[in-house]
Design a protein that fits this description.
Length: 361
Amino acid sequence: MLTALVFLIILLSAVLAHELAHYLNARSVGLPVRAFSVGMGPVLFRHTWRGTEWRFSLFPIGGYVDLPGMAPTVDADGNLQHPTGGMAEKPLTQKLWVLLGGVIANFLLGVVLITAVILIAPGYRQITSNVTPTEEGAVIADVIPGSAAAGAGLQVDDQIIAINGHKDPDRERVIREIRGADRLELSLLRGDARVEIALPWPPEGSEERPLLGVQLRPLSIEDLGVGVGQASGEALWFSIRLLPEAVQGFARGFAATLVGRQSEEVAGPVRIVSLVNQATRIGVAPVLLLAAVINLSLAIFNLLPIPGLDGGRMLLATVVSLRGRPFRPGQEEKFHFLGIMLVLALIALITFNEISDLIRG
């Protein structure tokens, strides 16, 4: 239930930011907005305010802003005619400003969320800025039931003060010893008592080196906290650096999807829900970071020159401006329809691959 709620909040906040930016940019150039909807499908709630019908629709998978001059009109004989007024009469710069609003909003929301992550949990600066904190000591954070660690008597909150003669080891040293030693000799601080544990490694009767079965946390970690200004700067630079990598990731991910393989570089609804579930179990900072990545991904994806997306609409608007005349009435809408069908087919294929992988275990 919590996973579904968090997923819904992340999705609705991204949609709301995206469509609200389209609305504000449209109003800033004098365009009226006939309707503003969060969600698609049957309208559950509607209220008219300042000349706009504000809607909340049944399926929270997207949204839209209804602007005049975006679609052809039909004359008395049933023939399609070029739209007049509204968006159709605006110069290219104003059209691009309106269309670019959602992309800018999702990008900025991603930057704000990453800034919040850095301020809440400075350790995440390892991801955003490659700043590695200095750790000291190693403490057992969890012991897996039935593991070699549980059998040897290791307990949660045991501080490892020596392993195989190495005093005050950090987590990296402990991991290296577990992976490479022929015997484990541990000195632990349990409360005020010192506990000595020795065991052959791997355990007798085991042909392969198993996992010890513990999770470790540092005894202390360097404070990487920064102010709002520096956190914002690091978040912005991280988001900018992510742009080319994300575009390449989309290209590789879509190519893998088309040949029936699941890619780690694109995620459909099934995998996103799984990621939300994992992040929710850890804490607030991972949830905010995931929400930031989703917003940045939406910004970049919407900027792709695919008809039906904001980037595709900007491309066609630019082509019309350069050629000096519009497409035939209804032709541009066909391009956008085909583009949306392509996007939906890709999403369906990604989802099918994810479900198939789940079934195969």
